[in-house]
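step 4 of 6: structure.
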Amino acid sequence: ETGVTQSPTHLIKTRGQQVTLRCSSQSGHNTVSWYQQALGQGPQFIFQYYREEENGRGNFPPRFSGLQFPNYSSELNVNALELDDSALYLCASSQLGRTGRGGGTDTQYFGPGTRLTVL
Amino acid sequence: AQRVTQPEKLLSVFKGAPVELKCNYSYSGSPELFWYVQYSRQRLQLLLRHISRESIKGFTADLNKGETSFHLKKPFAQEEDSAMYYCALTNIAYDKVIFGPGTSLSVIP
């Protein structure tokens, strides 16, 4: 069984640039959730992808977007980077919908995170 | 508004002493509550969830709907319990998870 992986480990961007972060879900999982964790705070939910569709979204502006691929890996894209976007970005995979959409029960398995610094 | 609060940012206890990490929530509906833990240099991982009603590593947590609390307890703290603990909740659809700000537990030998 392969765990959740994220790439890159860390990166540095400047204001106004765009960034793409990647997440490979755990084998057998069909759902990926993305979180932003600023220093000293808990993870903040960005959005979730279930079987290639956005399944839920937190209070983040549209410049935060994502994709999920047929193999259930996922990307988080952030456009027009701002200084406040500097944070640790976590993805978590899970297996939802054993009894149909919304009938999930399973644990989220987290990746190691990508540390983004915006200068 | 949906939120999770953890009033203590830092908590220090002596080894062998009881520990209680507080968690309160506000949510309209019936949430599912979790405790996640992050040990030093490790990933965030699930510790326990209220629907399982199980004890993990000696920790238990009881959901008190009247007080909207889900405090984490352990009768005798161990040094290996030192970690960051996050309380979290999700809705029935599991399409959004709200985390608290976390409590850093330090167990003094």
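step 5 of 6: annotate
 - The CA atoms of residues 48 and 54 of chain A lie 6 Å apart.
 - The longest strand of chain A covers residues 87-94.
step 6 of 6: archive
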